[in-house]
Amino acid sequence: MWIYEKRLQFPVNIKETNAKLAQDIISQYGGPDGELSASMRYLSQRYSMTDPKVKAALTDIGTEELGHLEMIGTIVHQLTRDLSIEEIKASGFDKYYVDHTIGIWPQAAGGIPFNACEFQCKGDPITDLFEDMAAEQKARSTYDNILRLCKDYPDVYEPIKFLREREIVHFQRFGECLEAVKETLDFKNFYAFNPSFDTKAPCLKNS
Amino acid sequence: MNKMNKKQLMRFITEVSFAMDDIALYLDLHPSCQKALASYDNYKNMRNQAVKDYISIYGPINKYQVNDTNYFSWINDPWPWEREGNC
After folding, report:
1. Domain residue ranges of chain A, discontinuous segments joined by +
2. Which of A74, A91, A172, B81 lies at a CB distance of 3.0 to 4.6 Å from A12, suitable for a disulfide?
3. Nearest to B87 among A12, A60, A169 (CB)
């Protein structure tokens, strides 16, 4: 169950439209390392997670990512809400506009639609947590790139900087999640089998 | 009664809520850290009072706070992504 609170996690108040920046930033809405992928990844991985602390972390981080999705949607909306048709044509936003007008739709900066293949739920706690840590770093790199593109636009820069910092905190927490799962396994070989499915390695012939 | 205006009060709620969000992630992995638990509780008290003040003056921020006198402010007050939204 989720409860919607009528506020953003961090304020977004963009005064000037900028269709070019909007086309870059929408990647964090529906792109390969975006917030939608992040939220669906963590919330989906909870069902096969073994450690209760990690179930809690996946729930809370997956929920926070939904809040980040809303922030990105807000940034893109505020960058495009007052565009004239001349600005739409001049900025290259016309390709997006023709299918979505100025609605918010999950796609990557290059126009590729959101796809669940952008994240994985392998049903193996160790595998999934490695994916989560990589995902946080990939999202951080994407925000690094966006920050370079929006450094002259403080209204955009500040919320993006906040989101980048959250990737770093989440990476730290997922690192602790991985340690928590490893504590319950054989320290000589953490990766021998899937701890959510097997108690030893029955996929091998003589076990 | 709270001396902050609407914008300041929402800003305060946003700040203390974020402090709670961040500490909660830490507590998920360090559930017996007394210092973090005390800090969480401290921010929770600040948030509870601020949200209570906000609702009584400006209207609900979640649908469980909606009642027969404030329903229209839930619908008609700006949504967070809009100009003059809660941010």
Report:
1. 19-182
2. A74
3. A12
CA dist B49 and A74 (Å) reads: 28
CB atoms within 10 A of CB A58: 26
Tens of pLDDT, residue by residue over B17-75, are: 999 999 999 999 999 999 999 999 999 999 999 999 999 999 999 999 999 998 899 99
In A26-55, the residues whose Cβ lies within 8 Å of chain B are 53
Q: pLDDT digit string (tens) for A114-155?
A: 999 999 999 999 999 999 999 999 999 999 999 999 999 999
Say how many domains are in chain B: 1
Are A8 and B64 inside 8 Å of each other by CB? no
Please give the Cα distance from B51 to B48 (Å, whole number): 5
Mutate which: B8, B13, B22, B25, vs A, most A CBs within 10 A: B25
Q: Does B1 touch chain A (CB under 8 A)?
A: no
Judge whether B69 lies within some domain. yes
The token pair that represents A182 in the structure block: 């490893």
Q: Which amino acid is at A197?
A: F
Is domain A19-182 given the CATH code 1.20.1260.10 in the classification? yes
First-to-last alpha carbon distance for chain A, in angstroms, is 41
What is the count of residue pairs from A and B with beta carbons less than 8 Å apart? 75
Q: Is the CB of residue A10 less than 8 Å away from at least one CB of chain B?
A: yes
Domain membership of residue B41 as a residue range: 6-76
